[in-house]
Amino acid sequence: MSRLNLNGKTIEVRSAPATPLLWVLRCELKMTGTKFGCGVGVCGACTVHVGKQAKTSCQETLADIGASSVTTIEGLQGPHVRALKEAWLRIDVVQCGYCQSAQLMAASALIRRNPRPSVEEIDCAMHGIICRCGTYPRIRQAILEATGQVRSS
Ligand code: FES
Ligand code: FES
């Protein structure tokens, strides 16, 4: 048994301390909003927040996380998240949707630490999350709109 501070609640999980968080979320807790892509830290599909940082959950074990807070797409909230979601819908960012939980996790971590990121800062923060559908230009536009740097059309 391990303790996990997840989406604002401390819970007990059966998984061993060496288990990667992604497996705990999807296999034990059946929280499938966090996606499995590569399992080896290269696609970014499994991105969650550990503390205030966006991290790939396939690369963080329960032992690594310890008492740090974990936020998944199911628990992501706040005014900046609402602004992102509204911009995402307005621009119709999503294609197949597979990568989009991770894109929102990375975007929200970015604008929480940098409320008005430049295009270069957006591209740098988002570059680790692969979108096979190529939604990158719409993601960039949505972040710029959500942060009030361009007007919505
Ligand atoms: S599944 Fe974690 S980085 Fe690809
Ligand atoms: S929307 Fe399909 S992989 Fe990104």
UniProtKB/TrEMBL annotation:
Q: Coiled-coil annotation: which residues?
A: none
Q: Which UniProt keywords apply?
A: 2Fe-2S, Iron, Iron-sulfur, Metal-binding, Oxidoreductase
Task: Report if keyword Methyltransferase is assigned.
Answer: no
| UniProt key word GTP-binding | no
SUPFAM superfamilies registered for this protein in UniProt: 2Fe-2S ferredoxin-like (SSF54292), CO dehydrogenase ISP C-domain like (SSF47741)
- InterPro entries from the xrefs? 2Fe-2S-bd, 2Fe-2S-bd_dom_sf, 2Fe-2S_ferredoxin-like_sf, 2Fe-2S_ferredoxin-type, 2Fe2S_fd_BS, Beta-grasp_dom_sf, Diverse_Oxidoreductases
Q: Which ranges carry the 2Fe-2S ferredoxin-type domain?
A: 1-76
Could you name the domain of life of the organism this protein comes from?
Bacteria
PANTHER family the UniProt entry points to? BLR6218 PROTEIN, OXIDOREDUCTASE WITH IRON-SULFUR SUBUNIT
Q: Spell out the protein name for this chain.
A: (2Fe-2S)-binding protein
Q: Which organism is it from?
A: Paraburkholderia bengalensis
What broad taxonomic lineage does this protein's source fall under? Bacteria, Pseudomonadati, Pseudomonadota, Betaproteobacteria, Burkholderiales
